[in-house]
Amino acid sequence: MLLEQFNVGPYQNFTYLVAESEGGEGVVIDPSFGIEPVLAAIDAKSVKVRFVLNTHSHRDHVAGNDEVRARTGAKVVAHKVAPLLQDVSVVDGDTVEAGRLKISVVHTPGHTKDSVLYIFEGNVATGDTLFVGECGRTDLPGGDPSEMYDSLLHRVVRLDDALVVLPGHDYGPTPTSTIGREKKENYTLKPRTREQFLKFLKE
Fold it and tell me: What is the pTM of this model?
């Protein structure tokens, strides 16, 4: 499998190029501003990009959608409630396939109503639901602290510890992590009741 992580744009966004192999079918996850290095890699690796996968609809995660679509003919994938142009609408439990790549969708509202995780080949692209050492904000339009509680402490913590965390921003001490490490070290995943979590987010 080919997996490349790009730190692009003014907000330390991570965009990912994933493919079954060089010259094979693949996807781009969260094309941000400054997408040129990703487009260059697509050409250099001869990747046939079938889909653009958006973890959520915030502008810094979808800014490069049109450029990738125009260059590759890829279809845009997002949760069905995402307020953006989407060719393929997904919900929790769906699977997207690009060649031999099988990518599972997990709905994790909290940062936005349309936030999702994409799980594939031992990796999980977490967008702005989970960062290395932190979680996404819930005070922006569409954010919901109670939904974030359910997403983090009922869904994320139940994922396989071995999954490599591919966050949406370079906000942590390392560019990637694992679910197991985050469960041990990420203070936002500490066991709490809903009431404790809501109070914690206000602190």
Answer: 0.98
